[in-house]
Amino acid sequence: MDKNGSGIERAKSVCGVQTLKTFRRAVCAGVCLLAGVAQGQVVWDGDSGGAWTVGGNWVGGIAPEADDSLQFSGANVTNHNDFVAGTAFAGIDFAAGAGAFTLRGNSIALGGNIVNNSTTPQTIDLDMALGATRTVTTTAGDIIISGNLSGEGGLSKGNSGGTLTLAGTNSFTGRLWVQRDVVSIHELDGNGTDDIWMGTGYRSATLQYTGSGERTTRGIRFSSGAGQTHRIDQNGSGTLEFSGTLSQAWDSAGYTFALGGSGSGVYSGIIDDGTDPAGQITVLKDGRGVWTLMGTNRYLGGTMVNDGTLRIDGDNRAATGTVTVARAATLAGLGLIGGDVVLEGTLRPGGALPGTLSISGGLTSDSRSEVVFRIDDPTCFDRLAASGGVELNGQVTVSLDPGYSPAAGDTFDLVSGAISGTPVLELPALTEPGLAWDTSRFASHGEVSIIRDAGPDVRYAFWLGQDPSLSGPDTLASADPHGTGHSNLARYFFGGAPSADGLPVPPRIAVEGDEAVVRFVGLRSGSDAAEYKVLSSTNLVMDALEVDAELSAAIEDDPDQSGVLRPGDYVRRRFSIPVTQPGFFRIRAVDNLTDFAAPGQDLQLDTGTWTVDFPIPYSSSGGSLTVTGSGTLILSADNTHTGSTTVNGGTLLVDGDSSGATGDVHVASGAVLGGSGTLGGAVYLAEGARFRADATLSADAFSFGGFTVRDIDGLDPDPAPGTYPLITGNIDTQNIQTVGRENSVRIGDRRLWFELAPDALLYHVEMDIDVTAYGAVPDDGQDDAAAFEASLNDIISRGGGTLRVPPGNYDFASRRVIDLGGAAIEIRGHGKGVSVLRGNNSDGVWWFNNSYAASALAIQDLTFAPNNGGNAGTALEVDNPALPTDPDLSTLEMRSVDFQPTDSLVDYFQVHVRGAFLQNARFDDVFIRGVRGSEWDGDWKLAEYGFDLSDGDGAAFVNCYSKNNQYGFWLSRYRGAVVFDRSNAVQNHTGMRVAAPADAICTVDVLHCHINTFVRNLKIIRADRLSVLELASYVQNEIPNPDTFKDIVITDSTDVSILSCAFNQPFALNRVQIDLIGSTQGVLIQGNVFNGHYWNGTGNTVTVDMDAGVSDVDETQNLYPPEPQW
């Protein structure tokens, strides 16, 4: 028998010169065949003690030789491998009815697979080297491999029930594939180095972890048919963490990803659906353990928390499915949730420390639910922020940290916004007398606070009694027994304690209009009016302004009367306030501020706007100014101080001529600089510092630290279109980021972007108009083409802007030809299937024949629909016939655009997107659905092209889809970087094709894509570098293809890598899975699953076909299933 079991090679000369041993082995082989044992397989009977090299332990009395396959059967289970360590055997088979074997002894090289046909669990305590991927199949009983596995090969748990336990200290580097049921491991490190694959066919898979905790960068790949549940059970100690990506080998399947077990687990990688809307992943949390999602996830199938605790600490905003929490389960965390939350169990915002759990959707809870908040102190407590509203019908429990001392005025906004439903608040007891919970704002603002109880037990008399040292005259309202400077009644009224440290609660300040308003908080109500006198010989410090001067103020009964804030005086003022309502007064600055006696004086602006319309006085002209706080200081005078100005907080507006103030201006992160004046020194904005867009500030020089468009404050909500100077001067452009139209921001209905001009930073405001203002009427069946043409030409004449398309159907009776003329145009609808452009003619919708290199077109949130009862021409064409030799003419960007036939059996665009001479075209979430003819009669001329691009430089297709076209993605004479990322080509003649000119540099990346066609999936011509990663390659399965089908065709290319791809769908009689043509060289084919055999075993399937000129091809760690996996 040769090592592949194809014939009895060692016994082919039985009647000639073969030895007696060889003859006996040939007879044994015949007996085994009659008994149903595979050729080349030696069967154990254990009749002679247990040593493997003893022939008496094997049927026929002949011991195995290297490369034989071993079958263990019967009840004699004692055995010991005494062959030389490392001897190769072709496989291990435990026969039906075999006893409980434990294979021990020297190590072997495993050249085949392992199968257990017995219902009895089997143990292999041998070390085994894996030269290639080996399959372990638990056909009838479990298998435990307690020996150590090593080598470059991988390990696959076969498509059968039962559990495979890997109990050794392993070091193999190939792929670990759990095809079905359970693989139990105690460590991830050593059990392969590639992503862990799970599932096959229509089978679910489980990876069970029993170790002591570890972190792995490996990802997880689902590879079964649709609807299966693949799970990770963390039953070990410590914490198990995955930081790799979880994805699908083919996007159209759709799975459930279960996180279970009794231990603690973290998935910090990304859970990604892929591009096909049908292939949504659902996350299921069950088991009593705790799992945490920390990645930026993109799955849409929803999240089910059925048991234990699921923490969401990462950014799940793109995971927009509903999160449901069952009665016995808990949802916790301080991350971002993208969908709605339906709560029957427990919700705990926060983590090890209190924090905020944010929900993009809404929260709905039933009467059995509980939401738990923890409060550590007034600045550190749990919060719940739900953009879609909060309905609470269960219990809301608040707990206090033991180290927190509650005080009147402490406020906790536990829930953002209004609350509906009928929540039951469970608040902890407050032990200090006179303190009480105020829940009056919980329903309207999600807020609870601590107040002084206005009940009879804290009337003035009771308040006095809290200090037993007070008696006799000390109890008078006007008395000040502790020498605080405030009377008993004043301290009582303003929320102080009766003891010596019971000073009044200070006022709070806010901005109303152009003035600062001081509001008193903590006031007691229910007693008579009190007169509060302030006798102060030191500074009166307001929360608004602190200077080195004495301040005084007056408060009158009339709340509209303004008090006077005057420095430099010693004045006693009387405060006369109605006790029954909080008082307030307004303050304004008059005359001069005092002299800043020392350089480096701080001006504290806690809030409010303060205008200094006189030169800032200094004792010496070299004084410096530091502004802190959160208020606004306006310098409108002509200042000449030569010291530096530092803005550590708040806003500094320089409206005067300070060109004589030659000191540098430093603006810290979070602080704001603006104004319309002139500075004499250099301006330094730290990273995170902000600049006001209404400024026209000039300075000697400007230096930015990581400045971006997002660092602009005070944007006009309705600016007129045009170009405006922001700053003028000598600008250091080294650290300026995100400048240019591609980094624009929105201001109301305008687009704002920045341009670096010589000695100036300009900002542009572009038009943003609605096509209905030009006569387009949705859904009336009348021609709207003229309105679109007029509105676009109007925008073009003003240098660019945005055309908005409201919801509805818009009809084009003729194709419109438009020259962008160097303008940058955005056409934006309200969503795919919502704003629809219908081509009611045989030419198409738009042709942009641009004549300037600066032209830029962006199209977003639209649907193009052929509606002509047949061929509707070319939906969108963008090129430049005037200058066909310029490769950098125009840019095209399309996001969230759909091409959908009105009648899927009749209407079609012959070409959907055609572009020529485009620079770095980008397509994101563009779905094209064509109409094709018969597969085999050559009638592919209905929908001819999905994407047809030529003579361009750079292109990116992200989450795109092209179906039922002759050519899905067709790029001719292309150069630069071409990227296909999570994009699909389905039911086309040819899926994706890129051809580069012979004299151009072109690189191609095909990442996580799904291609399923009739003739050819991927064709690349003259690529300087090609990377194909995790491609799911299918044969269209409507009827067997009689022609030769080719998955990947590569011609005259270099530096090629084909990694972790899956070749499936066994419907091609003749198939070449990788075809290398011409002078292609430097090819790495690694970690792929070649599953392209025709389903009934006939036909001709080639894994890799190479022309004579192909060189330097390395095939390693690939998997070749013996039977097609559907």
TrEMBL record:
SUPFAM superfamilies: Pectin lyase-like
Keyword Signal in annotation: yes
Keyword check for Iron: no
Keyword terms of this UniProt record: Signal
Gene3D superfamilies in UniProt: Single-stranded right-handed beta-helix, Pectin lyase-like
InterPro entries: Autotrns_rpt, Pectin_lyas_fold, Pectin_lyase_fold/virulence
NCBIfam families: autotrns_rpt
Name assigned to this protein: Autotransporter-associated beta strand repeat
